Amino acid sequence: MQVQELVGIVPWTFIAQILNLFLQIYLIKRFLFKPVNEMLEKRKAKADAQIQDAEKAKTEALAMKTEYEQSMQEARSKANEILATAQKTAATQSEEILKDARAEAVALKAKAEADIAQEKRKAVNVLKDEIGDMAMEIAGKVIERELSEKDHEKLIDEFITNVGETS
Fold it and tell me: How many CA atoms lie within 13 A of 91 on its CB side?
């Protein structure tokens, strides 16, 4: 008889065990699953917030990168513009310097030519006087007579004309 009791189902025990099972399921669901689900929801919300922050930061970084590239392009444009302006200014200044140097060289050459012409005239006048004196002495010795002033000037002019033609 005892064997039958071990194998048999007692209805009050079966009902108590089923109620015990339902009570355990309720308690587990209330005190275990609910906090775990809330914790998982919080983690999921936190992860979603971090993903949104990361996407926002990525968008801001792309905007900053675009702004930086635009600024760099503007800086390059300004640098090229400044360089072009400097080159034009340098070319203009060099042309002015060359023009001034050429004008100065022409002026120096003209002044030198004028100085040379003046010195030549002075030298010719000095030579005329010396040659005139020498011609008078020679003529006086050759002719051994005194020439008149008029004859003297005529001889000097002829001599200078002959000397001028030979030189």
Answer: 6
